[in-house]
Amino acid sequence: MSRMIKSMCMFLIATVCMAVIAPRGDAAIGCGTVVSYMKPCIPYVSNKGPPGGCCGGVKGLYSAAKTTPDRQSVCGCLKSLSGSINGINYGKVGGLPGLCGVSIPYKISPSTDCSKVK
């Protein structure tokens, strides 16, 4: 019995230490997630197809980015992604939020300063 209590105490101490050491406010949304959400939009923004399932991804990503660090991370990933697609139509990229019925506080562009996104 004392061995079990000792194990539980060690687990509790380790958990508390991890919670204290863990960085706060870091973005939980990485570029892999952004790419997964936005992949259906690539044919549309590169003039190779209709929007298709693009709006589902845009709305899902918008819903997932709840904190400022998340929004800044998403902005940076979108900025990087938009700059890496050959033949991208920036007019279509910038129009995606409106097309899909969401409002984001920045323009999706390689020149966007994501550090100013709130």
Describe the structure concisely for a colleague.
The chain has about 120 residues and is mainly α. The chain has helices spanning about 1-20, 30-40, 40-45, 55-65, 70-85, 90-100.
Q: What brief labels describe this structure?
A:
single chain, about 120 residues, mainly alpha, Hydrophobic Seed Protein, about 0% strand, globular, disordered N terminus, Bifunc_inhib/LTP/seed_store
Model description:
- The structure is a single chain.
- 60% of the residues lie in helices and 0% in strands.
- It has 118 residues and is mainly alpha-helical.
- It has one domain (27-110): Hydrophobic Seed Protein.
- Helix 2 (31-38) packs antiparallel against helix 4 (54-64) and helix 4 (54-64) crosses helix 6.
- Mean pLDDT is 78; it is low at 1-25.
Mean pLDDT figure: 78
Shape: globular
Please count the helical segments.
Answer: 6
* Beta-strand residue percentage: under 5%
User: What portion of residues is helical?
Assistant: 55-70%
Termini gap: 52 Å
Main sheet makeup: none
Structural class: mainly alpha
User: So, the CATH homologous superfamily?
Assistant: Plant lipid-transfer and hydrophobic proteins
**Order of helical and strand elements:** HHHHHH
The CATH class: Mainly Alpha
For the secondary structure, the number of strands is 0
Nearest-angstrom radius of gyration? 20 Å
CATH topology tier name: Hydrophobic Seed Protein
CATH architecture group name:
Orthogonal Bundle
Protein name: Non-specific lipid-transfer protein
Function: Plant non-specific lipid-transfer proteins transfer phospholipids as well as galactolipids across membranes. May play a role in wax or cutin deposition in the cell walls of expanding epidermal cells and certain secretory tissues.
InterPro entries: Bifun_inhib/LTP/seed_sf, Bifunc_inhib/LTP/seed_store, Plant_nsLTP
Keywords: Lipid-binding, Signal, Transport
